[in-house]
Structure formats: C-alpha cells, structure tokens
Amino acid sequence: MTRIGGKIGILTDWGYSKIIYDQYETNDTDRSFRLIQNDRKRARRADWYSPDGKDL
Hints:
- With 56 residues, the protein is mostly beta strands.
- The protein contains no helices and seven strands.
- The radius of gyration is 10 Å and the shape is globular.
- The two termini are 20 Å apart.
C-alpha cells in the first residue's frame, strides 16, 4: 500500500494504481483488492498482477 495524505494506492512488483482511493479491501485467496473511493458508487477491482485494474 502507498499513501499520500489521506489517499491510498497499491504498489506491487507488476505495477501500481493511482493514489486516489480512500480505502481498500483484500481477498487473500484470489490475491485481489477492491479499491474504494468514497465519492463513487462502485469500487475498482484489481489484483496482485494488475494493481491498476486495467487488464481484468
């Protein structure tokens, strides 16, 4: 996890997400994340190999 101020992002060996999220949830079985912005209705799904969620 990376953090600037109150915002967070995910950094792995295979890439990174923008540091614009307010919270996250993990799923250790799938090695996946839900990146949550408080002002949005939907969370972004990401995983260890694609932390920006673009290749999912």
